[in-house]
Every structure is written in C-alpha cells, then in structure tokens.
Amino acid sequence: VHLDGGMRERISVPISHLMRTEGLSLDQAALIEPLAIGTHGVKRANVTSKDTVLVIGAGPIGLGIMVCAKVMGATLIAMDTNVDRLAFCKDWAKVDHTIQVGEELSDLSALTGGEFPSIVLDATGNQESMTNAFHMVAHGGTLVYVGLIQGEISFRDSEFHKRELTLMGSRNATKDDFNEVMKQISDGGLDVEPYITHRCRFEELIREFQGWMHPSAKVIKAMVEL
Question: Taking the domains of the chain in order of start, what are their residue ranges?
Fold first, then answer.
C-alpha cells in the first residue's frame, strides 16, 4: 500500500506477503482484503458482546465492519445516507437497527436510552461525518476512524474530555485478519455472494466503470472477470 501500481499488468510481491487460498473460489479470494479491513477495525476497537456499536458508512468497508462486529455478538447500528444501502445492511449484515443521516442524534439517543453507542466506527472517508462522529459516542466510549481523508479533522477538546473518549485510527489489515476472514468464509459463516452486486468481463471494464461510480448504479462490490 506504500507504492502505486496495483493495477499494473505485472507486479512483483515478496513471497512472504502471499497467502494460500485453497478451497476458496476466485470470488471469495478477491473479497478477503476488504473484509479483512473491517475485521482489523473491530479488533482495534476491542468489540465484545456487551457493546452497542455504530458503524457510519455502509460502503464495502463499512459492511465488512458490520459483519465482523456481528460475529462478536455486539448490538449493531448502521448509519448511512442511502436507504437502499441500509436495507442491504439489514439483509446481509444482520444489523439490529438502521439510521438514515438527518436525525441521527435523536435516533441514536432513542435507540440507546440516551447513552449513545459504546463504540463508533466511521468508514465514510468524509470530513463532516468524521467530525460529527465525536457527538455520537457514549461517555467513556471509543471512536475509530477506518475511513481516511487527505486533510485535517478538528474537534472541541472540552467535548472530547467531557466524554473521556478514546480516539483510534485503523489502517489496512494484518495477516491474522486475512486468516480470520478466510476461516469464516471456509466455515460457511460468511456468505460473500450477495456482497457482489455487479460483474463485467475485463474487456468491458472501461465502458462500465464510470457508470458504476454513479450512486444510481447501487454498486456494493463489482467484480471483473478474466
């Protein structure tokens, strides 16, 4: 991740950084990495069955966070601007509650009895969302930034101290995270097929790519087939 070049025709990778995926389909193998990022974020936050977890952003990474947090037994709330994405969170990630951005503070307060979630993970990569997330965490809770921006985030120190928050960053995934996702897929505990919403042949990619970027396409994860 420290160098450009992932979409090159050829790439050299140290053998120590390769992992065997015997028993997994090509579709399953291709989805290990984004799901491992979600697994890493949940581990960083030390999610347990006692936690109420809010995941902000229902994109591919946010969804990966949700399914991993659900495995840990947490009460799970998904937040996004897109109603269709929130419906997918219910169906695939089995979240307990969904909130559409707009009245999130009052909705969160109602869902948690005024306590707010003990753990909030923001996977939006949106500066406004990441700033507002400080107001959505319970006192003594943890805020984890999984999405990132190329800029600065500011917050009121008095609010941060009043809530005695723990602020964390989560970046990429470790080998253990990859292995954990592979085990979940192999054991049948993680069905990745619904996660793939769009497909095309390699020679069709240039034509399809721009359309996939538009919200109306409702892409969760697109797969390019050789």
Answer: 30-169, 196-226
Name the DSSP class of 204. Answer: G
Q: Class for domain 30-169, per CATH? A: alpha beta
127-133 long-range contacts, CB within 8 A, separation 24+:
127/151, 127/153, 129/56, 129/57, 131/155, 133/56
- Contact between 108 and 77 under an 8 Å Cβ cutoff? The reply is yes
Task: Name the strands in the sheet holding 97-100, side by side, starting at the edge strand that comes first in the sequence.
Answer: 97-100, 75-80, 52-56, 119-122, 142-145, 166-169
Give 89-142 pLDDT, tens digit per residue: 999 999 999 999 988 899 999 999 999 999 999 999 999 999 999 999 999 999
Amino acid at 126: N
Q: Taking a C-beta distance cutoff of 8 angstroms, is the pair 164, 62 a contact?
A: no
